[in-house]
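discrete fold record:
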Amino acid sequence: LFRSAMDELYLENIDEYVTDQNKIVTYKWLSLTLGVHVNQAKQMLYDYVERKRKDNSGAQLHVTYLVTGKHIHNGYAFHKVAVVKEEKLEAVKSKLAVVSSVHVYSIQRSVLKDSGPLFSTDYDIIKANLDICSKFSAIQCTFAVRRAPPEILKLQKNPQESSEQ
């Protein structure tokens, strides 16, 4: 498989973040850090995991996945979204009637006891990049506009105004 020099550089960046800096690298964090679309960030994380596993150097690599699909409970169907550890991935997928999507959510060297560190990683990078947080997203809304702080305060004091607009 041919890889461009840019792909190699991205994989080296991920390796530095995970191995040298001991960071939790989520696809959202990677997208905003490298300035790439979220789908490209997901693919880079997948490629990184595959390469590490192929090289047998992925022993200290822990992966979480985002899984979505149709779940049926008591005869009612609903859409389920879950972030799961790699060792629980197949069990979660087997409980879905239809698996809609599976992708790498994060990679890290340490075992996560809960989802708190994943939330913190995404929260911090989005907070630091509020002006561009949706620039690389797969979801776009041209009608979404940033409101000035005085306007927000006014709407908080009189919530009916926001529903009338």
